[in-house]
Amino acid sequence: MRTTYLSILIALLLGLVTVISCKKTDTDLTPSSASISGLTCGSATFSASAVSGTSYTATATVPYRGGNGASYATGSAIASSGVTGLNATLVSGNLANGDGSIVYTITGTPSGTGTANFALNFGGQTCTLSLPVTAPGSTTVSPAVSGLTCGSATFSATAVSGTSYTATVTVPYTGGNGGSYAAGTAIASSGVTGLNATLLSGNLAKGDGSIVYNITGTPSAAGTANFAINFGGQTCTVSLPVASPGSTTVSPAVSGLTCGSAVFSASAVSGTSYTATATVPYTSGNGGAYAAGTAIASSGVTGLNATLVSGKLASGDGSIVYNITGTPSAAGTANFAISFGGQTCTVSLPVTSPGSTTVSPAVSGLTCGSAVLSASAVSGTAYTATATVPYIGGNGGSYAAGTAIASTGVTGLNATLVSGSLAKGDGTIVYTITGTPSAAGTANFALSFGGQTCTLSITVK
């Protein structure tokens, strides 16, 4: 009998220990809450157009900034206001550790024409998602573009820290489909805060053109105000320089930044400490001075950082210099996302394997004036051709395909270097040129190759 009681007592104690352990484990596994630093309803994209009185099922993709990597569950329905009859429901998912997007499913039947608004609240941020609703039988085409060039945006006025600002920014696009679009919702600035950009309503060209945003508010500090633009299926970042009050310094600005023509002072080898410079050409500098930048970490091949060297722009064309340091993690291409003077592009540094006999390409002369084009260009017509550019004094080095070099003068075209190997002496390099020229005139490309520079000019009829 004593043995039986003792066995029962031991079983009860073991059960109690198990319950306590389970409760402790449940508490320890409480997940972190999803959190973001910004939610940009003004840049949301919809998977389908909505028509009054017609059943609607689609998704809305809403960009965010500063995600903390946490997971989140499906949300409850958010009823539309303005045009009623629709509900938006958050789709479960996981945040990125940084920028990304969340998705809402929108269902229902819109009660009329106009705008259906949804008050979103996610990760500590709020904004209003606006869905245009057209009339039955409307021939309205949802706006779409093939490219959006924030790096070529122009501002109607200069921004000064602490001073009320009202201006417009004009952002070029390529490949418009002729669709009309409504005014957007406000997109808050990041970096320098206090400003909002709002899309003005309009109609796309069937081809290349531009869209316009109103920018209003009071910038919180000197620096750069960034706006995450999402329009017609394309995204990019508009960057507005903000000057200090009373400053006589001209904020540096350029009309073009040509990373595809960057020149490196040394070759990079995987696993070997690297210190070199990258010289990046620009067009139409405004003479402004600029300070040394902060480190830009490489992507693709990691382990390197590019840092802008302080200097002063020419009043015209010139180049800026970045110091690149670190140890590349592997062979391949190390990419640096450069943003300077209102323009952006990607500098790509080839990284070879240890013991490679690859020679960095170098020429003693590059003759753009003798380039041969494989086809003529016509304004408003899609163009694909090659440009063969002669050089002298090649060193036999091989070279990878370049990044796109955007045209100036007549815009809408890009020139991209085709990979190859130099002759030991004279020869030619080839660029592929694609796009749709925006007008008749001359399209210019700032080429930089093998330590030499020149301007390739194409006549557009």
Which architecture of the largest domain per CATH? Answer: Sandwich
Task: Report the average pLDDT across residues.
Answer: 85
Question: In whole angstroms, how far apart are the ends?
Answer: 108 Å
CATH fourth-tier homologous superfamily of the largest domain? Immunoglobulins
> What general outline do the C-alpha atoms trace?
globular
Q: What top-tier CATH class of the largest domain fits best?
A: Mainly Beta
Number of domains as seen in the coordinates: 4
Largest sheet, if any? 6 strands, antiparallel
Rg (C-alpha, Å): 28 Å
Percent helix among the residues? under 10%
The oligomeric status of these chains comes to: single chain
Notes on the protein architecture:
With 461 residues, the protein is mainly β. It folds into 4 domains: 38-134, Immunoglobulin-like (Sandwich); 147-243, Immunoglobulin-like (Sandwich), CATH 2.60.40; 252-358, Immunoglobulins (Immunoglobulin-like, Sandwich); 359-461, Sandwich (Immunoglobulin-like), CATH 2.60.40. It contains 1 helix and 47 strands. Strands 1, 2, 4, 6, 8 and 10 form a 6-stranded antiparallel sheet that branches. Strands 13, 14, 16, 18, 20 and 22 form a 6-stranded antiparallel sheet that branches. A hairpin with a 2-residue loop joins strand 46 (441-449) and strand 47. 37% of the residues are buried.
